[in-house]
User: What shape does this take?
Amino acid sequence: MSQRKKYVVLFIVMVMVVLAILLVYFQVKYMEYPPSGSYIPDSWQVSFASKTFVSDGRYRALRSKDEIGVYTYTTTVHLCENKDMFLVISRPVFRGLDIFVNGKLVGSIGDMKMGRSNMWNGTFLFPISSQTPTVNITLKGYALFARGFYIPVFVVPRDIAQMYVMRNNILSENIFAWATGASILLFITFLMIAFSGRVSIGKVYYYFGLGMPFLSIVLFDNVVQLLLPVDYVFYQKALVIASLVAPLFIHMGVMELLFDKGKSPMLSRILSYALVLLAVVVALWWGDILSLVRFTSYAMIMIPVVIIYDVYMFIKDILIRSTVPLTHLVIFIGLVAETILLLYDIVAKVVMLARPVYMVFYAYYGLIFAMLGVYISLIYDYIYVYESAGAEHKLAMELKDASETDELTGVYNRRYLHKIAQTVEGRVCILMIDIDHFKKVNDTYGHLAGDTVLKELVDVIRRQLRAHDVLVRYGGEEFLVILTDTLPDAAVHIAERIKKAIEKYEFVVKSDYIHKIHITVSVGVSCGLIPAGGSSYIVWNLIAKADEALYMAKSAGRNRVISSV
Assistant: This one.
């Protein structure tokens, strides 16, 4: 691999690193921490069952089924300004929340009875009406497998709160709603291309396409659902299975892209089998929600392993290629972005195990990068394949036309006559036209002048025919016309019209000088009735009769029309 190419690959990786860093920067600035000027509780008094303890409000995983239930978080906030204030709850881990301000219920979100909600990526706003600088806040939350908040609860003035919520909705929930729709659209696009049959986009994109419905489920987990239509255990199973199957199909697509059929490395197949096995185990899981969440937290380790392996194989492939297809680079860029953000999440989770911290999950944004890479690659490849197929079809048609048309005059040749003789039906008449004394034209003015006469003769004949009539160059200076839906009298009339038009026409030819000459033709006519479905035998019999009539016209002195009817 050239040094320049290595620099290009390095540049691509650096660009994705910069984009990922910018994304992390904006997330940290606008989402991971409350905005400046916020009133953030130092601690919460938490009561559950008969227990009471102090908490900082951060995310905590439940350890046993006995801990599932409603937790009451209470705190006091001291305000230093007299403005319209709002309580902001961003990314709650609870499945349901009742919000009380100064003992008054100001709102409820989620499902407080069974926890059938998904609102961890939401940001919620509640007005605070208080005549005193001291505000008592009580939050009752239903904890199913964890409690607390990914982002601190805070109180801010109205304008800051509204701006914060708007930014959060755009950077989190809205962008994933759009991405979910885009992944479904991409899947539909794959189906349309696959079933259209017009072009083949290859097995690679079939794998990517099959992964899109599962990717849409993963992305949809970021969209707030205050009341799920199914039990949360079922929802969690579906989400985890989709999270395992989506990278499985992407992995299979990447291996199909990089290796010939059946030649992918053994480790690639082991990783695929591992993802399938984990998905089956989750589908058949018999334990409670806590054991399911614990198992899936370990099972999900396979996802970064597979994605990092795909990026590694991509890099190896790029380094050994003399030229790298654009589609390879685009998909590679998407996977690099996903890997960077995934690694960031892994580091953050390791830190969170050591000490509880607030965090935002970035790997979901990486999925959008990966999906965009596949989408751009598909569009590029489809356009290329479609245009190539169109060019091949056009070339095939041109070759076909070239084989069925006369090179000099542009009319059909005898090869096409054999083809059309099998399809014509109904009342059919044949005109056999031959130039009188054409040899004299060639001998006197040369063969180039003879070619000019033949080309201009074709134009004269065409002007006397209907659009659906067929003109064929039958021999050297002999032409054949097939008239469909034509009675014998009309055929003779058309033949006479052609003869007179040629007789009057002034042909301009060049030899040593420019000469204006006149020629005449003899025409033989035959007509017959061909049954439905066609009969080439009858057509060729009519051609033979027209040829006999032409011979009679020649014998009778030329420049005349004779019909065999």
Q: What stands out?
A: Residues 354-359 have pLDDT under 50 and may be disordered. The chain has three domains: 3-32+180-393, 44-164, 414-563. The domain at 44-164 is CATH 2.60.120.260 (Jelly Rolls).
